[in-house]
Amino acid sequence: MRYILVNKPFEVLPQFTDEKGRATLKELVQVPNVYPVGRLDYDSEGLMLLTDDKQLQFRIAEPRYKVPKTYWVQVEGIPTEEALEQLRRGVQISDGFTAPAKVEMLPEQPEQLWERSKPVRFRAAIPTSWLELTIAEGMNRQVRKMTAAVGFPTLRLIRAKLADLTLEKLAPGKWRDLTPAEVQELKMAVADTPENEGPANARRKPTQKYDPNFEEKLAAEKAARARRAFEKSGPSRGPKRQTSGTGTGRSGGRQADGPAGATRGGRSASGAPRGGKPGGIAPRSTGKTGGPGAGRPSSGRPASPSAKPPRRGK
C-alpha cells in the first residue's frame, strides 16, 4: 500500500478531476489508485495524506478516533481571551455545535511558513493575528466558521499537522512517501482503544481491528458468498407435471380424478347421479373435467325413474 504526504498549494482542488478545468492533485501526484484522506478546501493550504488504504481513510475521518488536525490560522483582528475561551469550549456553527478545540495565540507568523501564490487581502487599518488551532472533527469549512462565529474571520488557513505527521521542509506542490515508522505511528493513532470503544460510542457500529490485509480478505469473502449463493440455488426446476385424469388438464371446475365414489356437484365420480342405479345410461363426454355438463346423461334425463334430476346452480 502507498502512503503519500503532499503539501497542497493555494487554489488546488483536493481531488484528481475537475470539470471546470481547475488545478487538481493530479498535476502534483502522478501515482495511480491513491485518494485523499479527508478534504482541504480549494482556498486552504498545507498537509494532505493520500493512500489506497481504505480502512485507514475511514478511521482518520471518523470523529470517534479523535485524530487531531492542527492548523495555522491568520485571522482579522486580535482575538480577545473571551473569544479564545469560546473556541476552547465549542461554538455553534451552521453544521452544529463544535467539540472543544485547543487554541493558542502565536506571537508572530510561523517561521517555516511560505509565501502564498496570491497575497492575502486585508484592510490596512485592521491588524491580523495568528492562531494555532487543533480539532478532531471534519465539518465543512469548520475552522473558518468557528473563527467567524467569535467575531474574527479567517484570512489564511494552513493545515500544519495530522496526528504526528508534519510538513517539516516540504515545499508547496511537493510530496513524499511516508517512512515505515510514520505509517506505524499513524496506524497506532487510529487503533481500537477503550476510549474509542467506550459507552459514549456504544450505539455506533463496531469496527474490526486494524488489518493490513483487509482489502484482500474482503474480496475473498465476497467471492465465497457468491459461490455459496450459486450452490444453494441448485439446478433449475423443470415444468410442472399435469395432473392425470380425463381431459387435457384443469378447466373451469374441479378435476375428476379422485377416490372411487367421491361425489362432486351432487354426482358420483363415475358420472351417475346420486341415488341412480348402477348400469344406467353412460354420461355424454364433453371433453371437460368437472364442468357444469360433466356426468350428465346423453338423453338429458336421470338414469333411473326414481332418481331426481340434479339441482342446477344459481
Describe the structure.
- This protein is α+β, with helices and mostly antiparallel strands.
- Among the domains are: 1-63 and 163-214, Pseudouridine synthase I, catalytic domain, N-terminal subdomain (Alpha-Beta Plaits), CATH 3.30.70; 68-161, Alpha-L RNA-binding motif (Alpha-Beta Plaits).
- The chain contains five helices and 13 strands.
- It has helices at residues 54-61, 81-89, 142-149, 180-189, 214-233; strands at residues 3-8, 35-36, 45-51, 69-76, 92-93, 96-97, 102-106, 128-135, 154-162, 165-166, 175-177, 263-264, 267-268.
- Strands 1, 2, 3, 4, 7, 8, 9, 10 and 11 form a nine-stranded mixed β-sheet that branches. A two-stranded antiparallel sheet has the order 5-6.
- The longest helix has 20 residues, at 214-233.
- It is globular, with a radius of gyration of 41 Å.
- Its EC number is 5.4.99.-.
- Keywords: Isomerase.
- Residues 3-149 form the Pseudouridine synthase RsuA/RluA-like domain.
- It is an enzyme of class 5 (isomerase).
- Residues 258-272, 295-306 have a biased composition (Low complexity).
